[in-house]
Write the structure tokens for this entry.
Amino acid sequence: MDEFDLIARYFRTERLQRAAASGAVALGIGDDAALLQPAAGQQLVISTDTLVEGVHFPVNGPPAELGYRALAVAVSDLAAMAAEPLGFTLALTLPQAEAGWLQAFSAGLGDAARDCRINLIGGDTTRGPLNIGVTVFGQVPAAQALTRSGARPGDLLCVGGCLGDGAAGLAVVLGQALPAGLPMAEQNYLHQRFWRPLPQLALGALLRGHASAGLDVSDGLLADAAHIAKASGVCLQINGPQLPMSDALRSWPERQQLDWMLRGGDDYVLLFTLPRAARGQIQRWRQAGQRVSVIGQVQAGQGVQLDLGLGMRPVDGPGGYQHFRSQDD
Amino acid sequence: MDEFDLIARYFRTERLQRAAASGAVALGIGDDAALLQPAAGQQLVISTDTLVEGVHFPVNGPPAELGYRALAVAVSDLAAMAAEPLGFTLALTLPQAEAGWLQAFSAGLGDAARDCRINLIGGDTTRGPLNIGVTVFGQVPAAQALTRSGARPGDLLCVGGCLGDGAAGLAVVLGQALPAGLPMAEQNYLHQRFWRPLPQLALGALLRGHASAGLDVSDGLLADAAHIAKASGVCLQINGPQLPMSDALRSWPERQQLDWMLRGGDDYVLLFTLPRAARGQIQRWRQAGQRVSVIGQVQAGQGVQLDLGLGMRPVDGPGGYQHFRSQDD
């Protein structure tokens, strides 16, 4: 089977190309390029993500889960911009063309496309060490994108869901020693939180016109808070006891919980700042099913401060996961 | 140096982000996503390409040349759609962060960005086996994109420049035995044709409203002609003696010339079909400096036919380079 047959069989599927009703895709897979037509008054939102075996996921990861995670992680950046998904391209580098692997990968990718309501519009398949590149496209009304640079002193610091589950999920996926008595249901929950994160697209849309800055927690709470602080030229203060935790995470020792909530990353929940005048929205968002927590506030200054019960203390360095830093630092 | 410092030092440069004057980039590198605003009445054109070491370029290729080629090859797909470049994202996977390599790569990438008038708007840097993913964005007036599916019987088949130089260039780059007496100037020309292909953006823009179908020759003339034939539901006939050849290529034996022109690939010149009523344009394009040749015609039927002096004969299989096919086929 040659490259073109491969692409046709596993990626030119209705399931991937028609995952969502969309008038925006004027030309999909099969030509030199795809054509997108954002609606009038909308800006196009673009983000690219790469997943590498052994870096972003364990070696020999299950292909269906890889397919899901690769797309969901990229779409999370659209949620973080308060954008509506339109389409994505896939740049897939594979050591060999193995039908079973491709079928499972395509199925997981299709699940994510369905859940995120986004269509495959183009791609490139090449031979080499496994590397999954996804570029996502969305639209947002002009001037309403949620950037990192709008946080102002006095704003509240909020998070859209539980922290630490991504790191705990990785421990489960890697088969590390788990706390005695961790129920199977909680193990399954964490397994899913790692492999099938759900981008907070609905929350992102609700934040339009209200939140002053935002992003999705991928590097870890402290590292991502530092991104907002730097881009906005402010200090972000985090109240440790207010950090939201899942029931599953409570089974671990307190020190491990805290470390994962602060530095674990891979949570893909939205972290955002909210002017106090808009705090009435929080109750409405909760009624709409969003688990929004206030975890701190914005002050004049710079960097990130953390209160673990002994008052606010500066956090030295972002402390998040960084690919080009030795893990022994 | 951590990942963020690396990106900042070598990719957040004025040279890459301001390679072209463009009002279309509303938000560039540094947030969760970039924001593009195509002009009114324009469609967004999107294409993604991956370059893998040992597959698309020799192992330990010079980083400046890799940077140039990675972007130029991707932009060629915009030319093939008759689009105007707007921006690109870079997904770069590297075994390690080596300052000299990154500096040279960024410089070559910047040269291509300048030559193609396109700005870097986002990216992702990860650790792993070398893999260069480029996604390019352009705009084209609605309904004027040049697709593969519009060729009709009676149309002329044209090419925008010399064929076979990409493959001859690869032979030079690989240090293969060259024809005796090949002048150094010709060697340099071919070296450049491989590492620094020039996307035919100006020709693509000229073809708008005239050409009926088109693409850029990357897989090889026969393979790419087959793409148009299949997408348009027609037969493409190629007159071998009309294929345009550079002076450099003439130094090789005739059989080698022909093989490279037909099957070599990597030429990145436009192959397009033109209704006979529009043939008067060809002279105008030549006067504008475009080296356009008529190399055949479109007939009712399917597939590709080739005349090497003994009449039109069907070509069995595309015969181009395909990554997932054994080279021994």
User: Anything to note?
Assistant: Residues 152 and 296 of chain A are 13 Å apart (CA to CA). DSSP finds ten helices and 13 strands in chain A. The first helix of chain A runs from residue 3 to 11.
